[in-house]
Amino acid sequence: MALSALQRDPAGGGRFASAVPGPCRARPCALGVDEAGRGPVLGPMVYAVCYCPEDKVQELEALGVADSKTLSEAERERRFGLLEAAGDWVGWALQVLPPAHISACMQQRAKYNLNELSHDTATELIQFVLDSGVQVAQVFVDTVGPADKYEAKLRRRFPGLGVTVRPKADALFPTVSAASICAKVARDRAVLHWNFVEDLGDPDRDYGSGYPNDPKTKEWLRRNLEPVFGFPQLVRFSWGTAQALLQRDGVPVQWADEDPPEDPGAPPSVLSYFARSPPRRPPHRFFQERSLRALAGL
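The chain above was modelled as a monomer; its predicted structure follows.
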């Protein structure tokens, strides 16, 4: 199954897709677009499309597809299984955006916000399905930002397709409901099977919901903040909650040509790790493993 590759390397992100059903190459199809994980401070954001022949949309609805937020995790998994079982006429594709990629995009010098990232990802997925030979006729999208502007943008990009963008589209159109389930199941599995590359010992997976206002999530962030190197890759470091913790509990970075005057009461600076005199405590494991030593002179 395509999601098994995601479970092996959730942090890598990338595109995952079902096989294209034969009928979808021959008959006009409806395609829905939705995402999961836009707001959390932890884990990837997943965009999904789900498609089927237009004359099969009622059968898709009969599978019980619905807005994934209204379903329990067990129900989402069960209904995703039904979509997989209907693979001779239902297809799907995912784009998994890792936390580090999301934060890097949002903090690059040229302005590139989360809405633009979402629009571009959805556009790429639609193009991927078209390039795969699916006879897409109608596209239904759960809006990000003003629906009329987003719809006009997609119509310019895909002038030969019917495009409908609506708020709460996952509750209005069966293909969007199905895409919502695919996206949420994929995100949940990515978080569940996350491979921590950091040396955390026995990984602490008591994240809570992953949303910034969840006390359990905030506590997990506090427990897993490394003062110099920040958070594990699971964390979107550009989110306000993460940035506030870094500013409060992280080691300050001073970008200067010379060391500032020493102040015994000041918090340790990251420059102290490169001091000419031996550090007062053993170097961080990062430096030990790479045999890095303080620079004594040039």
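Strands lie at 14-17, 29-36, 45-53, 91-97, 136-142, 162-166.
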